[in-house]
UniProtKB/TrEMBL annotation:
Its cofactor is Mg(2+). Keywords: Magnesium, Metal-binding. InterPro entries: CysQ/Inositol_MonoPase, Inositol_monophosphatase-like. The keyword Metal-binding applies. It comes from the Bacteria. PANTHER family: 3'(2'),5'-BISPHOSPHATE NUCLEOTIDASE 1. Pfam families: Inositol_P (PF00459). One of its GO terms (molecular function) is 3'(2'),5'-bisphosphate nucleotidase activity. This is 3'(2'),5'-bisphosphate nucleotidase CysQ.
Length: 257
């Protein structure tokens, strides 16, 4: 039986999809990474859509893996924004844990994200708005007077980040999935995540929902709000960080970005 509350439901569903993905890795192994990735994307999407249709039949869905975007979401009261497998590249590489499942709910009543969950199956962790994580402590290296840690894409980091990091004395930490990177900020393993150069709503909706519930800062890199369920789902940049670092990082981005 699925949970009644949306936050608990998001966590339950993200965890269920994560279990499916771990099962695929176990049965298909990593002999054919492309086949594993394709199966992961498809089966995770199919399970998400099936469970949402069963337990939330009146709600619309925006999924990365859908064959087409159903415009009904633009007039729906509730829209689930999901990324069935965030970090598909990393999912197909043995030994990597930086891939995730994203499940978020957008509500027309508030014109904002109402619930969300990030599953990190490879480390048996689900972070959700149902029981929001505590505000994270400063990373130990920064607390000891060392550099703050900024997680960034391992394959397409923003070109301005090295100069930005140098200007504020930060350490760049490459990582896979956007969900895994924002989860690192939520748990205090990193102090900030900066991305520019291309993403979509499903890349950030669920982790941003959890980050905001935790009390972290989340915005576009120019400081403007992150807006979801728009006709064009492109949402190319974002900053997620400790609230006390937001002004400093937004200023640095304005100088170097």
């Amino acid at each position: 039986m699925a949970p009644v509350s949306d936050g608990a439901f998001a966590a339950w569903l993200a965890g269920k999809v994560g279990e499916l993905l771990l099962g695929l890795q176990a049965t298909m192994a990593f002999d054919d990474p492309d086949a594993l990735r394709h199966a992961g994307d498809k089966q995770a999407h199919d399970l998400l859509v099936t469970e949402l249709s069963r337990w939330r039949p009146a709600d619309a869905v925006l999924s990365e893996e859908a064959l087409e975007d159903n415009p009904i979401r633009l007039t729906s009261e509730r829209v689930w924004i999901v990324d069935p497998l965030d970090g598909t590249r990393e999912f197909g590489e043995p030994g990597r844990s930086d891939w995730a499942v994203h499940v978020a709910l957008w509500s027309r009543q508030t014109e904002s994200l109402a619930a969300g969950a990030i599953a990190l199956p490879a480390v048996s962790r689900v972070l959700s708005t149902d029981v929001a994580p505590s505000y994270p402590p400063l990373h130990p290296s920064a607390a000891a007077g060392g550099p703050i840690r900024i997680v960034t894409s391992r394959t397409r980091p923003p070109s301005f980040l090295p100069a930005l990091a140098s200007s504020i004395g930060a350490e760049l930490v490459p990582m896979g999935s956007a969900g895994a990177k924002i989860a690192a900020v939520i748990t205090g393993e990193a102090d900030a995540y900066i991305h520019a150069g291309g993403q979509y709503e499903w890349d950030s909706a669920a982790p941003v929902a959890v980050a905001l519930a935790t009390g972290l800062h989340a915005s576009r890199i120019d400081g403007s709000p992150l807006v979801y369920n728009r006709p064009d789902p492109s949402l190319p940049d974002l900053l997620v960080c400790r609230a006390d670092l937001a002004a400093r990082l937004l200023s640095a981005v304005s100088q170097h970005g």
